[in-house]
User: Fold this.
Amino acid sequence: MDSTAQRAPRPTGRTVAYDPSRPAPPLHVRAAAVLDAGWTGTSTVPSRGLYPHQWSWDSAFIAIGLRHVSPLRAQTELETLLAAQWADGRIPHIVFNPSVPLDAYFPSPDFWRSSAAGRAAGAPRTVQTSGIVQPPVHALAAWLVHLADPGLSRARGFLTRAYPRLAAWHRYLLHRRDLGGGGLVSVVHPWEQGMDNSPCWDRPLSRVTPAPARSFRRADLDHGSPEDRPTDLDYGRYVRLAADYRDRGYADGSGDFAVEDPAFNALLIASEYALARIARELGAAAPARQDRAERLTDALVERLWEPSAGMFLCRDVRAGELIPERGVSGLVPLLLPDLPRDLAATLVRTVCGPHFGLGGTTRLVPSYDLLGDAFDPHRYWRGPAWFNTNWLLERGLRLHGERGRADALRRGILHTAGASDFAEYVDPYTGQACGATGFGWTAALTLDLLHDRPAWDKDGVTAIKGEVRG
Assistant:
């Protein structure tokens, strides 16, 4: 996610007074309070004051948690995002709040210039957005939100209105973003994949000439320590890629950066299964969507599986080769129901092995290889553990019969979320809070795990495919 980070205070050895007359509120009450604090009336900001707009995949994860508090708010969350969709089908990664000052966040609306630069691609005229996208979790979120209160959903026509927009979103990705020609979606900017600063991007980014430092001002450094944030060199490359994409009218296909990412494509596959269920709910036939999900799974295995790494790797489309870096993105396909059994078993061994340490050296799964040269337990996406990726892995472990490991990871997520004050991300060894606290998707996914622990067995990808797996 392209968003500025506020560094949480590090432990200073101060004592905490124990007051038995004022017990801490239950975890679900605290998590709901975080979402209430971020609610704008139509959507939820990831962290008020630091992330003052609406982010695409944040809203999808937030809606999954909000459904346990208010199904109506969860539906509204997704409807607000979908209302900013471009005519070509893309769902932008940021929907800007016009009441927020331009200097509160960079890149701001005057950088993206969506209504002008994106006119040919059908950018909306009445709302300002970014021009790039984020992982397609939205159909999965919409289906789970529907299941929270089917009566309300049907009465409001929630799925009836959402379905054509979600279908157009998937068409855009499948038709405009198959830049490698192998059936998978490519991202054209690291911010699109959501794991902005991952070492997996270092090699393809090295070909990008950075924008001059004087041409932009990094608002993120107002809130966080430089050693926890992307370097000035990397940030200059991010800005260059975004500016070049904007200056091409947000046309796809000719940029310097194009990467097939396993997590992005796995989430598309999960959402294709969800769209199949939504179509059946609306009385339409859905075998083509289920078939497409299965074909995409085959393409994912064919193009991105690396047996020697024991996991999926990113593919640099411009260089025509896999990127030899182990990021958590390569574990996320564990959530797919049609993943071959031997690959699923290998992914479990990898996540529990020395590179990620789950159940051994780490509390939560880190964002990057513990043994990698670029590992840093605090620097943004180069080692810290994030709650959304751990939520996805908890679901994947449960789906493939690893209930003991899933239960242990669930306990670790809940404990760490509460102890860190719902941090944006944490040190994978200690659980120390990093980035913003009171973070939206951390609170939302905490609610989901608290209120719907068996959800993946009955409501998630397993049920989306219409099967029960042990």
Summary: The longest helix spans residues 262-281. Residues 1-20, 454-461, 466-470 have pLDDT under 50 and may be disordered. The two ends are 34 Å apart (CA to CA). Residues 422 and 442 are 6 Å apart (CA to CA).
